[in-house]
Write a structure and sequence with these properties.
Layout lengths: L7 H18 L4 H6 L2 H12 L3 H9 L15 H6 L6
């Protein structure tokens, strides 16, 4: 959980940044993700409300992102897999 001194807006920005990093390291085609329209909006909302942000940061720090797959605990993992780049 984020420190209490962060505003909700800052927390949302940090979680969006984590989502962007998860998409990048998981081989997500950002154009394909955005083209899902409501799917992308829902994924952003899911990430914004996710309670795994500490686990997500730890996952990156431990280098698990090198696998090219989203974290199994990620509530958006299926969305990310569906939006992977061709050949990725």
């Amino acid at each position: 959980m984020a420190p209490l001194r962060w505003s909700m807006f800052q927390q949302a920005l940090r979680r969006h940044a984590l989502m962007d990093e998860m998409m990048e390291t998981s081989g997500v085609d950002p154009i394909a993700a955005v083209r899902t329209g409501e799917g992308f909006v829902a994924a952003r909302a899911t990430c914004r409300e996710c309670t795994h942000d500490d686990g997500c940061r730890t996952w990156f720090l431990e280098g698990r992102d090198a696998l090219g797959q989203p974290a199994e605990f990620c509530p958006n993992a299926e969305f990310f897999r569906a939006c992977k780049r061709e050949g990725g």
